[in-house]
Specification:
The chain is of the alpha+beta class. It contains three helices and nine strands.
Length: about 280
């Protein structure tokens, strides 16, 4: 009886040992499967756009030209001092005109971090014609009416400008300034209804190329790796750019010297597309 009690084992203990032996291989299999499962990968961030490189493109927009006109008539054998002063005061004024601008631009950029440095040149066709006409005054000596008119015609606007900007991925904001070029045709005319020794008439005119200054700002957006959209504002000044001399002549060969002058200020707002190399 004593031996039977010593050799008997609880059934619960045997079942627990059996379950442990069975769980060991299953745990190994589960661990092996876990090792074989691929880890979740995070998507790589998109590369930041790089503005370094050269480009060429076209633009289209609108512009205004403003001119300050001045006129002086010297006393002479036709108009006396009082009449010459009256005509001189009547020939000065300001006028504006608007026109379409269109052309092309090319340049190169260098980017370091968010800082961008660049150099750009552009050429735009720009036809405008501000003109001033005063035909409401009369000569002091005779009361005869006279007319004095001035006009200035532009043909193009070109600039060469360094640029400095801040890049934020595909966006670029910049300021710019440099040298501006244009060509103009300027004309001043005078006529009156003065009796003998009149009537008198005169013309002073000139055509020339001008060099001035320009400044502005713009924004660009990279539509794709090589295609860029832009908007830009520029102002260009050509101070006291034209001074001409003509002669007022009456039928009896009496004369006065006629002086004319003009300043030009151009403002341009345009949009464009360019291809980056």
């Amino acid at each position: 009886m004593l031996n039977r009690l010593k050799t008997s084992r609880p059934r619960g203990h045997s079942l627990w040992l059996a379950s442990c032996f069975l769980a060991l291989p299953l745990a190994g299999i589960s661990a092996a499967k876990a090792d074989d499962m691929p880890m979740a990968m995070k998507a790589a961030p998109a590369p930041v756009y790089n503005w370094t490189g050269c480009y060429v493109g076209g633009n289209l927009g609108g512009g205004t030209s403003a001119s300050n006109f001045g006129s002086t008539v010297d006393p002479g054998s036709y108009l006396g001092a009082a009449d010459a002063a009256t005509v001189s005061g009547s020939g000065s004024g300001s006028k504006n005109d608007i026109g379409v601008v269109g052309g092309g631009q090319a340049g190169c950029n260098w980017q370091s971090g968010t800082l961008l440095l660049g150099l750009e040149g552009d050429f735009d066709f720009f036809h405008s014609n501000p003109n001033f006409n005063n035909n409401t005054n009369t000569l002091v000596s005779s009361g005869a009416s006279f007319s004095i008119a001035q006009s200035l015609t532009t043909n193009y606007l070109a600039t060469v400008r360094p640029r400095i900007g801040i890049a934020a991925d595909r966006n670029l904001a910049y300021v710019t300034g440099g040298v501006a070029f244009t060509s103009i045709s300027y004309t001043e005319t005078y006529s009156d209804t003065n009796p003998a020794p009149g009537p008198g008439a005169g013309v002073a005119s000139a055509s020339r190329s001008l060099v001035g200054w320009t400044a502005g700002a713009g924004w660009e957006y990279a539509l794709a790796d090589r295609w860029i959209f832009r908007t830009e504002y520029l102002i260009a000044g050509f101070p006291t750019n034209t001074t001409v001399i003509g002669t007022i002549v009456a039928p009896g060969a009496a004369t006065n010297t006629l002086h004319g002058s003009a300043e030009l200020l151009v403002q341009v707002l345009r949009a464009g597309v360019e291809f980056k190399f």
